[in-house]
Structures are given as structure tokens and as C-alpha cells.
Specification:
The complex is a heterodimer of chains A (208) and B (659).
Chain A lengths: L2 H22 L3 H40 L4 H21 L4 H31 L1 H4 L3 H18 L1 H4 L6 H36 L8
Helix pairs in contact in A: 1-2, 2-3
Chain B lengths: L2 E3 L6 E3 L32 H15 L9 H6 L2 H16 L5 H6 L19 H13 L38 H5 L26 H11 L22 H5 L24 H4 L7 H9 L3 H4 L17 H6 L2 H4 L48 H18 L14 H21 L12 H12 L5 E7 L5 H17 L3 E6 L4 H8 L4 E5 L4 H9 L17 E6 L2 H10 L9 E5 L4 H10 L4 E4 H12 L4 H38 L8
Helix pairs in contact in B: 15-23, 17-22, 22-23
Classes of the chains: A mainly alpha (208), B mainly alpha (659).
Chain lengths: 208, 659
């Protein structure tokens, strides 16, 4: 086992234990150390984000544009857009209406349009469900999809005054809760075990 | 009828037997054999051996039994002596039996003192018989000429064979006559008997003698001949086996050496085999076989100093028949007889491979692979299979029933028209939902309980794709908050969130971008430094925290990192309709004070707050769009089902009705 690996593991365990104890123990020194460690982690996370951004822009698109590979035109567009927005942001500031207008009028419509296309694709896939798959699971899935589309549409909620509609809506809305709780419990236990493994040194994703 | 005892095996044979019936040793000398004179010119031969030889020579030439004295002597001869003489005469008629043991142990005649006539009696009987025994072993051959007829010789080594040992001189007897009748005690001189010429023994029976001569020739390192130890005398009576045994002939020292026979008797097959039961085929084979003597050439004694070694008869009898009579047995057809090697002469064995003498150049095998025609065909076939498998082939296009582009376009257009027409018309005729969920009611109650001018943190964590839903859902709630006079502050964990927050709440104080994900939220929850400018030093100083998100991970992040630091301050969610199911457990557990998800909850909030908003405008388009989707799904499922049914009927053959 290398010395650097041992050192990194020790630092990770120490920091995790301090932050965890700081969450439960109201010791001023411990709180101070915990705050300092979290501040350092923020700086490191921001730097990691900047490195990931630079790698994406210059490491991927820049190389592709330089080598004039397939799809290099889009890479040139990404590079130019990035440079323009960065310059404007540094120059004008994020609160500038121009910057606000770029996001409101460019980013939002593009992503909203993609979401709309995804919605239409999902609808068509649902309509062709039985062409690809057939059987009891497909039928049950299709029926559940219809029910919750109907619930989400609010059509039944609008008719809640009718007898047995409210009770029906309550029963139908409580049905997925069982599965949701199971999912949440599993997620919580997994996160707990993952954290304990890192604190005990069983997992060392940061070591070489 | 007297019997002959075999010198080799000791078996008793009839008197007329020439060869021993057991070991086929010659019992009697051949008729043509004449005793050769004993040579006295060998100085290495011990004296006792010479005496034995001389005696044998004398006995061989004797025609009649010798006697000690005349008739007068017979009258005075004691009974025991008579008995001894009688036994000796019987033994002498048999053969020249030698007792090597007694002969070896017998001392030289010169060394053995003569029997003293004056012998003590009574208590010294043991010594008397010992002396007598010794006297038997050393006959006075020197004093007796060879040609003189010998009287009855008291054979020195002859032990009375007859069991009549009552008058035997060696038998202890208390009678005084016996005691005084010993020849040692009698006053009469004892005439030395004439030692008869020893009978010529068969060459086979004298092998021990020849060997003994050789041993006698060996001298010690000092040049002194080794002394032959004397025979241990018997302390008591002579045992029966000794009394029955034939005493060996004592050859005096000056006895002439017995040369080997020049003529080796022919030993034929008939002599070796028993007389009875000889098959005819064997007799015929025997006649054709050459005599054994022809094969075994006698060694010329003049050419070789060593004594001729003759194969004993018993050994010759053990030889295989084929070696004696090779052509005796005809080879069986098909049986291979080995002609060389260590197994030469044997039949019926596995034929051996090429002998070592058969040298041949080893075959040269080529290093190339020998492939038969069939193997070549198989290899060619295998190569073709490999080439075919490695060659990429275009897969046959699978017929996939796709929805035509026109149909897709029509469906899209229907969906767009279902949304655009109500928006364009702006009728608002469809009824709003009359069912309010507990989560929505909790949100409304929480907002109503907020004190005026209280700081409220608005977290903007939604993406641009669902910004339409989130902003539409949150617009009424944010209007209510601002109507309550609260101080709203926005913060975001996404880079684009700052712009979203500015567009949603232009009058709210933006705390900026919070990096680091969970670490950033934890750090902000512990020490909200970004909110220090607003006078907030701790997170629980906010009256409420409202999270706008469309991602469950972001919602969970604020739930796990920030909510514990709120200290019972309400945490509210304005989320997308897809998070409704996952956030309801948190609402039911009390971690979340209330939430509104989707346009339906927003419309319900507007009904509760009696404040018409954007939800009313989009409600009709929303419901028509949802119903359109519902209808498209149902129609598509039904069309697929019908197509399946019709395709099965077309593919299945007509069935015959069987009665």
C-alpha cells in the first residue's frame, strides 16, 4: 500500500469524522473546524467544476474542432458561444439584462422545446407499446399510465363533488406511496452504508 | 543278497545294479577298467591318503578275501573279531564306498600310533574302541605287498552292518571274555592283514577325492600343510547310523594316484532314463542321438594341468532333452524356436524383435505432417466454415412496422392544437379541481402563518426544460408571499438559476450561486455567509424556506442538509408533478410543511386563495392536452390489439372440425 494512499485515506476519514461529529456535538472547536473544512470543500468543488468545464470546452470540443473531425462545426459553435458568453459575463455581469435576455430567450426555449419533443415521443411510444411488448406486465403498465394521466389531468378532481370520486381519488393517490417509501428507505440505507464504508476506509475512491 | 550303497546319495541299490537308481551314479567300476598302480611318486599327497590309495589298489587286485591268520588263528580269534571280519567281508563285496568325512577326519597313518597290545580294561573301553577305530583308518599297507593274497581283512572303516552287534567288540559288556577278548588285550600278535588293492572307484565318485587332493596341495603361508582335524570320538556307544554306515576306504599315503579315466563311458539316453516306461518315440530318438561323450570331449590330461572336469551323471540328467538329443522332439508346426539370443532353443515364446546383432539403419521419418485424403477434406471444410463465419454479412432487414411520418405529424399536430386552441380562445370553461390535497392545504396554511416582513429564502433549483411548469405553478404562491410583505431572498445551486431567479422574482434579493452541491448546502445551512449581507447569520433566522425544483435529488439535498438546521422552521416545496409521489412521504412525516405540485395544485391554490392566476389560463389547455394524450394512448393500444388479432387469423390455417 503506497504512502500517498495511506495519507489520503487518513485525511478523508479524519475529515468525515469531524464533520459528522460536528453535526451531533455542539463543541465550538469542532464546529469551527467543521466550518473550515466545509469551506475548503466548497473551494475544491468550485475548482473541480471549473476544470470539468474547461475540459469539456477545450479538451473535447476544442480538440474536435482543431482536428476537424466529424461534427467539428458544432464544436466550433460551442467554442464561440462559450467565449462570447464568458466575455459578456465578465464584462457585463450576471445581472445585466443582456445576460438575462440570453438565458430567458435562448436557453429556456431550447430546453423547453426539447422537453416538448420528449413528451410527444413518450406519447407515441406509449401508443406503440403493445407492438413491441406484450404480456401482463405491459398491460399493467399501460393501465397504470392511463390512470395517472387521468389523475394528473385534473379531470377527476374537477368532478370531486360526485359520490365516490373523492374516495377513489384518495385511494388512487395513496397507491404509489408504498413503492415510493420503499425506494426512499433503500436510498437512505445505501447512502448510509456508502458513507460508513468511506469513513472506515473500506472504499477509497480518492486514492490511487 | 547283499546290497550296494550309493556313494553319492547313500541309497541302497541291488547288488547287480551298475548305476544308482536314484542319482545314476556308477556303483561298480567298468569291466574294462583295470586298476592302475598306485603311484607313490607324489610327494604332496599326505601319507594317510597314500595309505588309502595303496589299500584300494591292493583290494582291487585281491581275488579272495584275506584273513588275518590261518585256522589256528580262527580258533583263537575272539568272537568280536570274527564278527568284524564277517562284516568287513560283506562290505568289501559291495563297492569301494568312501566316507569322505571319516577320511578327512582320519589322521595320517604315520601319526596314528599302532594299537598297543597292552590295553587297560574296564574303565578305558572308550579309549580302546577309539584306538581300534583309528587302527581301522590306518591299515598297515606299507608292510603288506600288493600282490600278496590278503587274508581276511578287518576292514578298518567297515562297520558291521548287520544289527547283530551282540558280540560286537565295541558294545559294552561286562563279561570278562569280551573284555579280554579284545585284540588289544590278547597276547597273540596280530598279523597285519594284507591290504587288498583298493577297488577302482568310478570317476564320478572320486571327485571328492580329487578335490581333496587339491586341498591337500594347498599349503599355509608358512609352507606347512594344514592339518586335518581328527574326528571327534564318540563318548558313548556307537550310534546305529554309524554302525550301519559303510566305513570309507582309507587310502594310504603312498597309495598311487588314481589317474582320470581316459575313456569316458558313453552315457546314452537309455542309461539316464529309467528302464521302464520309455516311450518308443524316445527310444527311436535315442538311437539317433550321438553319444554324449562325443560332444563332451574329454580334456586331455597331458595338455592341461588341471584335472579333467567331468560332468556328473546327475547333472547330465538335468540337462534338457533337446541339448542331449536336439532332434528328439519334432518341432510343432507353427511353433517358433528361438535360434539366437539368451532364449536360444526355447520354443513357444514370443518371437523377439531384431536382435542386437541385427543392426540396421534407422528409418528416416519426414518432419512433414502426413495427412490422408479424408483429413484433407475435413480440413478444407473447416477452413470454409471459418471463412464463412468470419466474413461479415449484412443481416436481413427485419420488417418493422413503423408509424408513417404522416401519422406522426398528424398526432403532433393534434397535440399542439389541443393546447393552442384553448390558449388562443382563453375561454376558461372547464371546471377547476374541487379536491384539495392535504399537502396543498398545508402549504396554504403555512404561508398564511408567515409573519409579515419576515425573511423567506427561495431556493431556485429547476432546469430550463421544466421552467414553464415550475414558474407557472410557483407564480401564484410567490405572489401570495410577496403580498404578505415578506422579504424574499433567492439562492440557487445551478449556474442558470441566478437568471431564473431574477426573472421569477425580480424584486427579491439574490444571494447568488451556491457551488459544491451537498457540501455547499451543508456549509450554507451551518453558516449562511452568503446571507450575511441580509443580516442572516443562521439558517433558522429565515421564516420559511421554499424550494423550487423539478429534480428529486435537489429536493432531497435540501431535505437532508438544510432541514435539520431550520429548527422547526417550515420547509415548503413547489415542485413538478412528477415529484408528487416521492415528496408526499416527507410531507406526511412532517419534514415538509406543505407542497404544491403541478398545475392542478396551483389551480387549487388559486381557488383557495381566491386569486385567479396563470393556472386558470392554462387549465383548459392543460386538460385538453392531457385528454388528448389519454385518447392517443387508448387508440394506439386498441389498434395494436386489433392488428394482432387480424394477423393471427390470417396466418393460422383453416381448422377442420373433428367430430
Amino acid at each position: 500500500m503506497k504512502a500517498t494512499s495511506i495519507l489520503s485515506t487518513a485525511i478523508a476519514i479524519l475529515a468525515g469524522v469531524i464533520v459528522l461529529l460536528g453535526a451531533f456535538l455542539a463543541i465550538p472547536v469542532l464546529q469551527t473546524v467543521r466550518t473550515v473544512l466545509l469551506g475548503w470543500a466548497l473551494i475544491v468543488a468550485a475548482a473541480a467544476g471549473l476544470v470539468a468545464l474547461l475540459n469539456l470546452i477545450f479538451g473535447v470540443h476544442g480538440v474536435r474542432a482543431y482536428k476537424r473531425a466529424a461534427g467539428s462545426g458544432y464544436s466550433w459553435l460551442v467554442l464561440i458561444s462559450f467565449i462570447v458568453v464568458v466575455v459578456l459575463g465578465f464584462v457585463l455581469g450576471s445581472d445585466n439584462p443582456l445576460m438575462q435576455g440570453l438565458i430567458q430567450n435562448v436557453v429556456k426555449p431550447i430546453e423547453a422545446s426539447l422537453m416538448a419533443v420528449a413528451t410527444a415521443s413518450l406519447v407515441l411510444a406509449g401508443a406503440r407499446l403493445f407492438r413491441k411488448r406484450s404480456g401482463v406486465p405491459a398491460i399493467l403498465f399501460f393501465i397504470s399510465a392511463l390512470i395517472f394521466v387521468l389523475l394528473g389531468s385534473g379531470l377527476l378532481a374537477a368532478q370531486a363533488n360526485l359520490p365516490f370520486v373523492k374516495e377513489t381519488l384518495s385511494v388512487l393517490e395513496s397507491l404509489p406511496l408504498a413503492g415510493a417509501r420503499g425506494i426512499l428507505i433503500g436510498m437512505g440505507l445505501g447512502a448510509l452504508l456508502a458513507g460508513l464504508r468511506v469513513l472506515m476506509g473500506a472504499d477509497r475512491p480518492y486514492s490511487g | 543278497m547283499s546290497e550296494l550303497r550309493c556313494p553319492s546319495c547313500g541309497k541302497v541299490n541291488p547288488s547287480d545294479a551298475v548305476f544308482c537308481q536314484a542319482c545314476h551314479t556308477r556303483l561298480l567300476p567298468p569291466a574294462d577298467a583295470s586298476p592302475e598302480p598306485i603311484r607313490n611318486d607324489d610327494e604332496d599327497v599326505p601319507e594317510w591318503l597314500r595309505a588309502i590309495r595303496a589299500r584300494q589298489a591292493a583290494e582291487a587286485g585281491a581275488d579272495e578275501e584275506t584273513s588275518w591268520t590261518g585256522e589256528d588263528a580262527d580258533a583263537d580269534t575272539p568272537d568280536w573279531l570274527k564278527a568284524i571280519r564277517g562284516i568287513a567281508s560283506d562290505a568289501e563285496s559291495e563297492s569301494d564306498v568312501h566316507e569322505p568325512e571319516q577320511l578327512e577326519s582320519s589322521p595320517s597313518p604315520a601319526e596314528t600310533p599302532e594299537p598297543d597290545a597292552q590295553q587297560p580294561t574296564g574303565e578305558q573301553d572308550n579309549a580302546d574302541w577309539l584306538r581300534e577305530l583309528r587302527s581301522w583308518q590306518e591299515p598297515a599297507v606299507e608292510d603288506t605287498p600288493v600282490d600278496e593274497p590278503q587274508a581276511e581283512v578287518d576292514h578298518p572303516n567297515s562297520v558291521p552292518q548287520s544289527p547283530e552287534t551282540e558280540n560286537h567288540p565295541l558294545v559294552a559288556d561286562d563279561s570278562g571274555e569280551q573284555a579280554g577278548a579284545t585284540p588289544f588285550e590278547s597276547d597273540k600278535p596280530i598279523d597285519q592283514p594284507a591290504v587288498a588293492a583298493p577297488p577302482v572307484a568310478s570317476p564320478d565318485s572320486l571327485d571328492w577325492l580329487h578335490n581333496l587332493e587339491k586341498l591337500q596341495a594347498n599349503q599355509n603361508d608358512d609352507g606347512v600343510k594344514p592339518e586335518i582335524p581328527a574326528v571327534a570320538p564318540f563318548d558313548g556307544e556307537i550310534p546305529d547310523w554309524l554302525s550301519e554306515a559303510t566305513p570309507p576306504e582309507v587310502i594310504p599315503d603312498d597309495a598311487p594316484d588314481i589317474p582320470p579315466q581316459q575313456d569316458e563311458p558313453e552315457i546314452t539316453m537309455a542309461d539316464l532314463l529309467p528302464d521302464e516306461g520309455v516311450p518308443d518315440w524316445l527310444n527311436a530318438a535315442v538311437e539317433d542321438t550321438p553319444p554324449l561323450a562325443a560332444k563332451n570331449k574329454p580334456i586331455d590330461a597331458a595338455e592341461d594341468d588341471l584335472a579333467r572336469a567331468n560332468m556328473p551323471v546327475w547333472l547330465a540328467a538335468m540337462r534338457p532333452v533337446e541339448s542331449v538329443a536336439p532332434d528328439t522332439v519334432a518341432p510343432e508346426p507353427g511353433v517358433v524356436q528361438e535360434s539366437k539370443g539368451p532364449l536360444r532353443g526355447l520354443r513357444g515364446i514370443v518371437p523377439s524383435a531384431a536382435q542386437a546383432s541385427d543392426y540396421a539403419k534407422p528409418r528416416v521419418y519426414s518432419s512433414g505432417l502426413r495427412v490422408s485424403d479424408r483429413q484433407k477434406k475435413l480440413a478444407t471444410l473447416f477452413d470454409e466454415l471459418l471463412i464463412e463465419a468470419s466474413t461479415p454479412r449484412d443481416l436481413p432487414s427485419k420488417t418493422v412496422t413503423r408509424i408513417p411520418k404522416l401519422v406522426r405529424m398528424i398526432i403532433g399536430m393534434i397535440m399542439v392544437l389541443a393546447v393552442l386552441i384553448p390558449l388562443a380562445a382563453g375561454t376558461g370553461s372547464l371546471p377547476l379541481p374541487a379536491f384539495f390535497s392535504p399537502e396543498t392545504l398545508g402549504f396554504v396554511n403555512t404561508m398564511a402563518a408567515l409573519p409579515p416582513n419576515s425573511p423567506v429564502l427561495i431556493v431556485v433549483d429547476y432546469t430550463a426544460g421544466l421552467s414553464g411548469e415550475i414558474e407557472t405553478t410557483a407564480r401564484t404562491a410567490l405572489n401570495i408571499l410577496q403580498g404578505r410583505g415578506t422579504r424574499t431572498m433567492t439562492i440557487t445551486t445551478r449556474p442558470e438559476g441566478v437568471a431564473f431567479a431574477a426573472g421569477l422574482l425580480p424584486n427579491a434579493q439574490s444571494l447568488g450561486y451556491l457551488p459544491g452541491g451537498a457540501v455547499g448546502v451543508q456549509s450554507f445551512a451551518v453558516k449562511p455567509t452568503l446571507a450575511n449581507s441580509a443580516g442572516i447569520t443562521q439558517l433558522d433566522q429565515f421564516a420559511a424556506v421554499v424550494v423550487l425544483t423539478d429534480d428529486f435529488d435537489a429536493a432531497k439535498l435540501w431535505l437532508e442538509q438544510a432541514q435539520p438546521n431550520l429548527n422547526n422552521r417550515p420547509l415548503l416545496f413547489i415542485a413538478s408533478a412528477q415529484l408528487r409521489v416521492l415528496l408526499r412521504p416527507y410531507v406526511q412525516s412532517g419534514q415538509v410543511a406543505g407542497m404544491i405540485t403541478g398545475l392542478a395544485d396551483a389551480a387549487a391554490l388559486e381557488q383557495i386563495a381566491q386569486q385567479p392566476g396563470v393556472a386558470r389560463v392554462y387549465w383548459d389547455a392543460y386538460q385538453l392536452g392531457a385528454m388528448t394524450i389519454f385518447i392517443i394512448l387508448v387508440v394506439g393500444a386498441l389498434s395494436d390489439a386489433i392488428r394482432r388479432v387480424t394477423s393471427k387469423r390470417a396466418t393460422t390455417p383453416n381448422r377442420r372440425r373433428t367430430v
